[in-house]
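Can't paste images in this forum, so I'm doing it all in text. The chain is below; anyone willing to post the predicted structure tokens underneath?
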Amino acid sequence: MKNIVVGFLMSYDYEKLKLSIPPVYEKADKIYLALDHKQRTWKGETFDVDPTFFDWLTNFDKDQKIEIYKDNFYVPELNAIQNDTRERHMLSLKMGIGNWLVQVDADEIFIDFTQFVKTLRQHDHFLDNPKKNPVQIAGFLINIYKYLEDGMLYVDEPTKVMLATNYPNYKYARNSKERVIYTNNVLLHECLSRDEASLKFKLDNWGHSHELNDQFLPKWQKADKNNYKELKNLFYLDPEIWKSLGYFPTHDLNEIKNLVEKDETLAPSKAFLRKKNFGQWFKFLKVFNKSKIEFESYF
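Text version of the structure:
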């Protein structure tokens, strides 16, 4: 136990796994790909997987770390986000409680997974009794907004993301609502950086599809390197979450990684992390003490 186990959800955007698996491969002890046994999305739509993808996977998996976990991940009585949460829980049980359970989406690319593993190892004591001391390890996403001919637009303020847990009692997608430990690990998120047809398919079948705002797609369609500074409030749910955009003058992921590492505004400061982590520690210390007092007073 106490392994670093990484789980990916394999769906219609499976081709993106060719970019997200390699950065984690060497340092992961085991990797699982969760695939619905009938290849259905969380809304019940079916998708095909090109057989050449499995050829790529076999050739890439030189250490035989990768296992495809097939199960029934679509329940018609549940909405998309409920199916999302259910699949992540089932996948984590397969990954094994007692390990670090890292869940990465197909469109999320670690910039430095080696650093993330070192971060997890600093907190290995949380694996001794996961149910009693559940925690979440969070990082930050640089959200790629749109591919352009000679570069890409990105959201110029990173957003937090739950990356790992010791105990997967998920309440909403990857969020278990337990204590969060914030870290300075940054990933690229290709959430919207796809062609329009693929984007529309994603939005129609995504766990949050019922929450989309009407202004998102028109803004995305017209955004380019000449007008991106004028566009504001761009998030697909609550628009104000993504206030403005930046621009990378390249498509090359290695070049983008270098640009991100050199830009201090795209990574959380040490002061910010200290403040957030103290707040989480204090909040859950109070919750623990309150529960203890209530338990003792009951008797």
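Strands lie at 4-9, 30-36, 66-71, 100-103, 108-110, 135-148, 151-155, 159-165, 179-189, 245-248. The CA atoms of residues 138 and 163 lie 5 Å apart.
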